[in-house]
């Protein structure tokens, strides 16, 4: 069983639409990171959230860490084809030493 | 910029062969990691290392070993390759524990096929 669950597994939308993807667990984490992985490349960090209820914005991307530090969401406004990729959440179980990764949400934004 | 370089992008080997995957980072990071990535399973940690000559088992170490003789280089070894080790292998590095919640910097991966 996965320590981290991500939903949806796949998402295909039209350019300009909004979307939200989720990362959930029954465990409490000290921090959570979101990565994006494009085909043929390794994951690249988007954001780290560490405080329950924290909200961070990165241009059209909004990240939220749940109050209980068990879940997180990523909201994209006005999606563009360049947002296409695999979105991975990763949670720290011991203050940043190691991270557990979720299975990912594969996003496709069609022009 | 941090650069993590994996020696091969694609590799094809036969069952029973000993396979070496090499990873080099140029940021003097203490921590280095090896993951495998399979569809629907995400990244699973095989081994990690906090310092030269130190290694720790991750979640799926069976069938693998590692070597870290120099700080910048972390090698993954498949002692006797099997078909269930066909996968994408990702190497990563990060600053030490004292730098809390720092990102892991990944290489571009090695897609390994075992025939």
Can I get a quick summary?
The complex is a heterodimer of chains A (111) and B (115). By secondary structure, chain A is mainly beta. In chain A, 0% of the residues lie in helices and 53% in strands.
Mass-distribution shape of chain B: globular
State the distance separating the first and last CA atoms of chain B: 37 Å
Q: What kind of sheet is the major sheet of chain B?
A: 7 strands, mixed
- What structural class should be given to the helix and strand makeup of chain B? mainly beta
Computed over alpha carbons, the radius of gyration of chain B is 13 Å
Distance between the termini of chain A: 36 Å
Query: Cα-atom Rg of chain A, whole angstroms?
Result: 13 Å
Task: Give the helices and strands of chain B as they follow along the chain.
Answer: EEEEEEEEEEE
For the largest interface, the chains and their residue counts are: A-B, 28 and 24 residues
User: H/E order of the elements of chain A?
Assistant: EEEEEEEEEEE
Notes on the structure:
With 111 residues, chain A is mainly beta. Helix content of chain A is 0%, strand content 53%. Chain A is built from no helices and 11 strands. In chain A, the strands form 2 sheets. In chain A, strands 2, 4, 5, 9, 10 and 11 form a 6-stranded mixed beta sheet that branches. The model of chain A has no long low-confidence stretch (mean pLDDT 91). Chain B is mainly β and 115 residues long. Chain B is 0% helix and 52% strand. Chain B contains no helices and 11 strands. In chain B, strands 2, 4, 5, 6, 9, 10 and 11 form a 7-stranded mixed beta sheet that branches. Chain B has a 4-stranded antiparallel beta sheet with strand order 1-3-8-7, with no helix packed on it. In chain B, strand 5 and strand 6 form a beta hairpin.
């Amino acid at each position: 069983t996965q320590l981290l669950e991500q939903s949806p597994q796949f998402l295909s939308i039209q350019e300009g639409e909004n979307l939200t993807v989720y990362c959930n667990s029954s465990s409490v984490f000290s921090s959570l990171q979101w990565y994006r992985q494009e085909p043929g490349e390794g994951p690249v960090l988007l954001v780290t959230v560490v405080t329950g209820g924290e909200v961070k914005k990165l241009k059209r991307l909004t990240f939220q860490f749940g109050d209980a530090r068990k879940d997180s969401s990523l909201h994209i406004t006005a999606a563009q084809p360049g947002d296409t990729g695999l979105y991975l959440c990763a949670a720290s179980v011991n203050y940043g030493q190691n991270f557990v990764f979720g299975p990912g949400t594969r996003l496709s934004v069609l022009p | 910029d941090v650069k993590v370089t994996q020696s091969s992008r694609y590799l094809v080997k036969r069952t029973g062969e000993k396979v070496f995957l090499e990873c080099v980072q140029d940021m003097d990071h203490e921590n280095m990691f090896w993951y495998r990535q399979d569809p629907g399973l995400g990244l699973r940690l095989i081994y990690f290392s906090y310092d030269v000559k130190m290694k720790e088992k991750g979640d799926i170490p069976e069938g693998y070993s590692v070597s870290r003789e120099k700080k910048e280089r972390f090698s993954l070894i498949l002692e006797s390759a099997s078909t269930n080790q066909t996968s994408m292998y990702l190497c990563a590095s990060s600053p030490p524990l004292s730098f809390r919640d720092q990102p892991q910097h990944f290489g571009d991966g090695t897609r390994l096929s075992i025939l």
